[in-house]
Specification:
260 residues; alpha/beta; TIM Barrel; 9 helices; 16% strand; globular; Metal_Hydrolase; DNase_TatD-rel_CS; Putative DNase; hydrolase; metal-binding
Amino acid sequence: MRDDFTDTHCHFDFPPFSGHEVESLALAERVGVRKIIVPAVTADRFVRVLKLAHDYPPLFAALGLHPLYIAQHHEPHLEQLAAFLASQPPKLVAVGEIGLDLTMENPQFERQQRLLHAQLALAKQHRLPMILHSRRTHDQLAAVLRRLALPRCGVVHGFAGSWSQAQAFVRLGYYIGVGGTISYPRAQKTRSVMAQLPLSSLLLETDAPDMPLAGYQGQPNRPERIAEVFQVLCSLRPEPADEIADHLQRNAQALFALSF
């Protein structure tokens, strides 16, 4: 069993981790989770996420305005994001979580698109990678990324699209986030995609406390369950577990410039 994982997407600033950071990190470390990237979702969480990264060595921060919270985002929040990025806080490794989402009742899609373009411009200005959210918007997001000359790429997190959609992102140089969805046997499309993509394009993530694995439905997801995501990925792939793990760690280092 490997003992060096990076959870590239965990909302550690939410319950059940808030107020239980030390215990939660100890549980994660027990299975070998050495580093965790915490993406913010709204401007009022920027300071909290940066403080977590400052206070706890395994944690790293990403700052962004999540499309699911589009009704809460306003122009001053974008200005706050720009100011924080300009200040270059220690352990800030990405702009995220940002992206597009068409699963909401009132998605305000034009506003989402404007907000995404503004945040991608900030990522370009500060040469930072992006943590990208995309639900029912893979084709639109790929089209946006194709048009922009971004110096750093990013990861399409929690990917559950088709093989051709995954290939479109990979051809652009983007990584694909592998999470708990692959633990469900019924998720044949996603499992097949993750089995076939080049290892050089994959990143491991939990999206905790969201995206619970099979067998944990109704419970908050947790970063220590990354080990189980890894085991499922190994069962789907032809390569040896050590080779898969080495690729996953190198990919995290390459995208987020993490030191191991």
